[in-house]
Amino acid sequence: MSRLRRFEQLDLLPYIGKWLLLAGLVAVLAGSASAFFLFALDYVTGVRDSHRWLIWLLPMAGFVVGWIYYRLGKTVEAGNNLLIDEIHDPKNVVPLRMVPLVLGGTLMSHLFGASVGREGTAVQMGGALADQVTHLLRLRREDRRIILMAGISAGFASVFGTPLAGAVFGLEVLAIGRLRYDALFPCMISAIAADQVGLLWGVQHTHYAIGEIVPVQGWNVLAVLIAGVIFGLAGLLFATATHRLGALVKRLIAYPPLRPFVGGVVIAVAVWALGAYDYIGLGIPSIVRAFEVPVAPWDWFGKLAFTVASLGSGFKGGEVTPLFYIGATLGNALAPLLHLPFALLAGIGFVAVFAGAANTPLATIIMAMELFGADIGPLAAIACIASYLVSGHTGIYSAQRIGHSKQRGRGLPEDLRLGELKQYREQQRRK
């Protein structure tokens, strides 16, 4: 028995060496790309804040990005969903053109005032760059799956400065209720190393101060649970509204470049009429403010509406930072009603709305502890899990699979894409 165990450990050495090298290479590529993206994003955000009239060019920027994707980017337009599909069912190497297209499209969206995030861009760059390694080294089909997951983890970790959450996100985002532990080591190495690469390039991430953390007892637990349910409903609303608006826009406007053009007109007029400049771009100053002082109770809905309009009409970027904004401001608004410190509930909402919208409770619990300290872990876990359960079988990633249903007896088949769930239910009703 001891000889068998000894040889088993020796067999692991080539595996560890192989993935240290591959994951390290992915980390250098993804971490460097994210660093460049974050520096460029800071620059264009500063330009937009200094020249508010740029919002009137948003329709033309949307048309240009839409036209470029229409002519050159049809194979990569699915973005994060393309990466998830390729991991589940590997077919073709993700085209390298995904990197400049999503980078340029996201920077233009931010420069002219769309309400989009940054996670989608970093994840897509990380996944596309990682897939080039599989092409160059002619890796096996199963290794390709793992290296794509490592690329997702590296992109997420390096753009947010949360390496452990990034590693788990790359494992958890693929399927509801199921993790692939064969990719744990590569995802962890790539996420930690990519974060360090970004720091070496000089990336500085935003810090949030929680202050007082209440004891895990009595009313505090119940209040956080109630908040988690509300956060889950907000995530459900965001995901559902984004998908439905996107489908409606596609039905009404046949020519793809016109979709973000029309969306840009609506957003620009709304921003001007309402003075809603706080609801465009990433909104980091507003997120920070939610941790420091009470904010307007409608801020969360304002950001949700502008982000749904931006993503639903075809602007490029991500969903996660807007979800952070929605969660932090919603938590801030709920705090006095639930008799909790507003900074604490802003921090919990920051991660919990994302947990419900992306179906990634473990990654968001870890993210809470990485961003706000380990003491918030128990309360964040209650809210994130409640949000995850309440959001149901919906999510911002339509290619995400159902690994295990959130509730027993739901009768949902494994590996069904979330985007196909409505069609499946309609077929079941006809039987």
The CATH homologous superfamily of the largest domain is named: Clc chloride channel
CATH-derived topology of the largest domain: Clc chloride channel
| Average of pLDDT | 93
Overall number of domains? 2
Total number of strands: 2
Class from helix and strand fractions: mainly alpha
Query: For the CA atoms, what is the radius of gyration?
Result: 21 Å
Regions with little confidence, pLDDT below 50 for 5+ residues? none
Tell me, what is the CATH class of the largest domain?
A: Mainly Alpha
Content of β-strand:
under 5%
Globular, elongated, flat, extended or rod-shaped: what is the shape?
A: globular
Strand order of the largest sheet: 1-2
Helix/strand order, N-terminal first: HHHHHHHEHHHHHHHHHEH
Tell me the CATH architecture of the largest domain.
Orthogonal Bundle
GO molecular function, one term: chloride transmembrane transporter activity
Keywords: Ion channel, Ion transport, Membrane, Transmembrane, Transmembrane helix, Transport
Subcellular location: Membrane
Membrane topology: Multi-pass membrane protein
Entry keywords:
Clc chloride channel, chloride transmembrane transporter activity, mainly alpha, 431 residues, two-stranded parallel ribbon
List the helices and strands and how they pair.
Elements: H1 2-50, H2 58-72, H3 80-88, H4 98-112, H5 119-137, H6 141-160, H7 163-172, E1 175-176, H8 184-200, H9 218-252, H10 258-274, H11 284-290, H12 299-312, H13 320-338, H14 342-358, H15 361-372, H16 377-390, E2 401-402, H17 421-430
